[in-house]
Specification:
CATH architecture: 3-Layer(aba) Sandwich
CATH topology: UDP-N-acetylmuramoyl-L-alanine:D-glutamate ligase
CATH class: Alpha Beta
Largest sheet: 8 strands, mixed
CATH superfamily: Ribokinase
């Protein structure tokens, strides 16, 4: 991997999977197999952890690039055009002529949701790490966030070691993947400065029964583990001390992408020198506001609204 440039081009580079999301929300009742459900509320939006995390940080003023793989159809998709409109750097992204861009159909009912996804294009996404353009882009940032399942540890470990040697901080939101053993997962996240599981994922990975116990176990593997608690906010542990901040009390329309929005807000605050409490507040602001609109990115704040919410939380 090339050496990190003296003045990095980016604050943040997000590596992960891109999806076009078709979102049906405000359904009159919970949908059932064998029935047709109808709603007047529908949205097409960029989806996945890569999109929402990157847009959240970029809107707040963090210089952000992405690395992903899309189909040749992407240039005709309003979802990909929205990525370009958000001024995210898309150099080093791979455009495949033989496969369509990944697509997810999401059905949201009250505070729950289900999704069906078509994503052959995302198989072996980590092969992008072999690209010289990708390696160069990773070396031009202050922080790398991994918004994808961490398959094939042997592929990730040399890259993560190289980033750490160059002083580039690393975070990951990998979800819960039973196809990867806990030991394989640990071998990867030991090279991360942050991980962002939700409470269910944290308890599943650690085999514990509470968010607090999961957090304590996770710090054996990661410098600063963060556990997201949904509407209850989030907590983290740093140097043996637990920090916790509550969520915002706002009406929820669609929780899709709220956790990824949290990641973008948290990383923006971290990269701008905030303390741990403000990092949690920043994540909660972005996550809570994202959930007030359908899709992960539609409700994300601009900097003026973000600052207003931050001031209110600090006074509380």
């Amino acid at each position: 991997m090339p050496r990190q440039s003296p003045q990095p081009k980016f604050d943040l580079v997000v590596f992960g999977e891109f999806f076009s999301d078709m979102i049906f929300y405000q359904l009159p009742r919970r949908p059932l197999f064998g029935e047709e459900s109808k709603t007047d509320s529908f949205l097409v939006a960029p989806g996945g952890g890569l999109s929402t995390t990157a847009i959240a940080a970029s809107r707040l003023g963090t210089a952000t690039g992405i690395i992903t793989r899309v189909g040749a159809d992407a240039k005709f998709l309003p979802t990909w055009n929205e990525i370009v409109h958000e001024k995210l750097d898309i150099t080093a992204c791979e455009f495949r002529k033989d496969l369509p861009t990944a697509l997810t159909v999401c059905v949201a009912y009250k505070n729950d949701r289900m999704m069906v996804t078509h994503e052959p294009i995302n198989r072996r996404l980590e092969d992008l790490l072999d690209s010289e353009a990708v390696q160069r882009k990773l070396s031009q940032t202050r922080h790398v966030h991994l918004a994808c399942a961490l398959h094939r540890p042997a592929k990730w470990l040399p890259v993560l070691r190289g980033l750490r040697e160059r002083g580039i901080t690393v975070s990951a939101d990998f979800g819960w993947n039973p196809d990867i053993s806990v030991n394989q997962l640990i071998s990867i996240v030991r090279h991360c400065d942050f991980i962002f599981p939700n409470e269910r994922e944290a308890r599943a990975v650690t085999g514990t029964t509470s968010a607090r116990r999961a957090l304590e176990k996770l710090q054996e593997w990661v410098r600063v583990p963060v556990v997201k608690l949904g509407t209850k906010g989030a907590l983290l542990m740093a140097d043996g001390k637990v920090y916790q901040q509550p969520g915002l009390h706002l009406p929820m329309v669609d929780a899709t992408g709220a956790g990824d929005a949290f990641n973008g807000g948290f990383l923006h605050a971290f990269l701008h020198g905030s303390d741990w409490d403000d990092c949690l507040r920043a994540g909660n602001i972005c996550g809570s506001l994202a959930a007030t609109q359908p899709g992960g990115s539609k409700g994300l704040p601009e900097i003026k609204e973000f600052n207003r919410q931050m001031a209110a939380l600090r006074r509380a």
